[in-house]
């Protein structure tokens, strides 16, 4: 059983404000962390273009959104340092490893499986609905927006991607910050995330839309914007976790007093 606090309906905006304040306090650490993943994303995009699979770039970018919560665990050391009254430094990210690495790895594997499922679904849809789709970016976009098969591919692919994104969000909304901050297992962290989404759907739907908008906006500017929006969303997620303050209730066996 996991207990959560009730948060205000406008809480997502407060989380973004708090995350931005963290960036202002430690711009080199936070933006530097974001640039690492911008560089990795740029290499993937260049690689796909080099082998003639530029049309797979949108799938890769949407896949990044699925696994991004797992990639953000290092940035949580910034607000933790601020809470302790310390000056955030990049060495905190690489030296202060969470004690629950195995549980974080398990949850990361679940997100990776979602990403691989999305890749397989995208491949299936491409073959089943639009086998004649051109792979170059310009012709692909023209085909997707003008041909009925291309339009079907876009609509169905977007709908399925949205469902997978919703599952990933529900799994990770609070889970990774909780695993970094508390000595709990992955199942408990997953329960906390799902309970927050189910218990306060308006708040979490608003938060999900804000995340989607910020990640899309960051990706639109040749991925450079992700250097800011990625750590910003991650830091705001930490403040969302703090706002909900999930607390795992002791089990009946552990709370029962020993018999005389």
Tell me what the structure shows:
This protein is an all-alpha fold and 260 residues long. α7 packs across α8. It contains 13 helices and 2 strands; from the N terminus they run βααααααααααααβα. Helix content is 75%, strand content 2%. The radius of gyration is 20 Å and the shape is globular. The protein starts with a strand and ends in a 5-residue tail after the last helix. The longest helix is centred in the middle third of the chain and has 29 residues, at 101-129. The protein has one domain (16-245). It has a two-stranded antiparallel ribbon with strand order 1-2.
Draw up the topology in text.
Blueprint: E1 2-3, H1 11-25, H2 27-50, H3 57-71, H4 77-83, H5 90-95, H6 101-129, H7 137-146, H8 148-172, H9 175-181, H10 186-199, H11 201-220, H12 226-244, E2 247-248, H13 252-255
Antiparallel strand pairs: 1-2
Keywords: Membrane, Transmembrane, Transmembrane helix
Transmembrane segments: 31-53, 59-82, 103-129, 149-174, 186-203, 209-235
Protein name: DUF2189 domain-containing protein
What count of structural domains? 1
How many strands? 2
Report the end-to-end length measured between terminal Cα atoms. Answer: 28 Å
> Would you identify the regions where 5 or more consecutive residues have pLDDT less than 50?
252-260
Q: Which structural category do the helix and sheet elements fall into?
A: mainly alpha
Provide the residue-averaged pLDDT.
Answer: 85
**What's the gyration radius in Å?**
20 Å
- Please, how many helices? 13
Strand fraction band?
under 5%
Strand order of the largest sheet: 1-2
Largest sheet: 2 strands, antiparallel
Percent of residues in helices? over 70%
- Identify the overall geometry: globular
| Strand and helix order | EHHHHHHHHHHHHEH
Transmembrane segments: 31-53, 59-82, 103-129, 149-174, 186-203, 209-235
Keywords: Membrane, Transmembrane, Transmembrane helix
Organism: Maricaulis virginensis
Pfam families: DUF2189 (PF09955)
């Amino acid at each position: 059983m996991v207990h959560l606090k009730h948060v205000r309906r406008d809480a997502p905006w407060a989380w973004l404000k708090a995350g931005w304040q963290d960036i202002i306090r430690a711009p080199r650490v936070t933006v530097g962390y974001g640039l690492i993943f911008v560089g990795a994303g740029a290499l993937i995009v260049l690689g796909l273009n080099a082998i003639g699979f530029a049309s797979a770039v949108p799938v890769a970018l949407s896949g990044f959104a699925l696994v991004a919560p797992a990639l953000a665990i290092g940035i949580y050391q910034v607000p933790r340092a601020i809470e302790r009254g310390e000056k955030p430094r990049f060495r905190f990210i690489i030296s202060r490893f969470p004690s629950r690495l195995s549980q974080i790895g398990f949850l990361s594997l679940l997100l990776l499986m979602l990403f691989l499922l999305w890749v397989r679904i995208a491949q299936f849809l491409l073959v089943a609905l639009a086998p004649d789709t051109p792979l170059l970016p310009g012709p692909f976009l023209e085909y997707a927006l003008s041909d009925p098969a291309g339009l079907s591919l876009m609509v169905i692919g977007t709908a399925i991607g949205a469902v997978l994104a919703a599952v990933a969000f529900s799994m990770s909304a609070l889970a990774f910050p909780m695993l970094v901050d508390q000595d709990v297992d992955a199942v408990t962290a997953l329960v906390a995330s799902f309970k927050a989404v189910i218990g306060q759907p308006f708040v979490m739907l608003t938060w999900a839309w804000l995340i989607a908008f910020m990640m899309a906006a960051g990706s639109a500017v040749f991925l450079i914007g992700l250097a800011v929006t990625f750590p910003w969303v991650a830091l705001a997620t930490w403040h969302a976790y703090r706002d909900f303050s999930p607390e795992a209730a002791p089990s009946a066996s552990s709370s029962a007093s020993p018999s005389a």
